[in-house]
Amino acid sequence: MSSFFIRRSGTENGGCDHVLEVDGNLFTGERDFESAFGPPTSLESDLLLIGSAVLAADRASERGEREDHARGIQLTIPVVNAGRLSNLSGDIENILRILSNDGWQIELQQVSGSPENTVSHQENNGRTLLFSGGMDSLAAAVDFGRAAEPLQLVSHKTHNQRTDRGQRDLVNLLSTKGVNLPHHQFFVSSRDSHSDDFQHDVENSQRTRSFLFLILGALAARRANHSEIVYLAENGQMAIHLPLTEGRIGAFSTHTAHPDVVSAMQNFLSAALSKQVQITNPYLYKTKAEVIKTLVSDFRDCVALSQSCWRNAHLPSGITHCGSCIPCFVRRIAIEFWIQPDPTVYMENYWVDGISSREPEDDARRNMADLSEFVVKMETLSPEEVMSNWPELYSTNLDSVRVIEMYRRFAAEARQVLSAYAPMTPLLS
Which end of the chain, N or C, is more open, meaning fewer C-beta atoms within 10 Å of its C-beta? Predict the structure, then answer.
């Protein structure tokens, strides 16, 4: 088990493997929060620290080949509002277990300071949208940004300049099209520390990022007196994210926007803030192609600027997407269902070049084979067989009938698009 101790000024490390020091090798987003909303309360500071510490520990704990290794992570965090938050440690551990499929131990230690007093709220009908810079959050910015209720955008950024710049470029482009929205970016990240061999970015899956992201959104919504958070709007395929095959069960399938996570985070944030927090995903029962229909018709030049790839930080200049990961495949199916050619700049064009000649362990070949197998199953299995194959559909936080219908529509979209590429067609037989 890897252990991490978060140090504020004057506290000791408790004999843990790694020490993360606020404003030393851990950046909590507090400075950006203060620039946007004024000085954070002690409770807001505590929550920012918890969210940033979780993400830092996740990124610093290598999972293993093909993300199939369950990790043990122990995290000790000093908080001022321990009386309010300590009882929620179990809730945090449960959320993180769902997100990352790891064993988490969260200890919140009391430190000196003034706990937050009860805060009164004058709620309005505004909304806060978690804006990642992907096509789904872009579509939500368009859909909700043109509504009567005020909308603010909240983004998380790290050292990844491509994502940072992409978020700002999209907001600026939307403003030229009459969608003018306040946009708050929060830098939350970590960096290497040579004193204890801490490496801040050895794991790139970052399954726990939505835990931090929702904390940022909830705090921004609180300051704006918004009664609702529109969650990091995510199409149903990627939100529910049924494992494509049995080999992807566990940590290999992300649950960052899963309804179970949304429900658990809503309960946690409501308890932590002593205020009912409402989190919704407006696209839960839509395919990605259905989500972006408005974009490709009225905001087509924004599509190429959006980011979907998990690997974009490691791509050469001028290349925005790897073209081999599942998010790239899902993105391309959605775009080409409506328009061709896809304006995205991919590193390699597997669909035209073919993947059958690649080695069996090649990521692109494995991803496309798994995706094609999933498509065929959704086309051919009965609803009862689908439920048997994916028992997570029995969750009380989703409508299994609507989920199956959504995945069947995706299967039809995928077959229509992939059948136009000769190297891909045999995979769908």
Answer: C
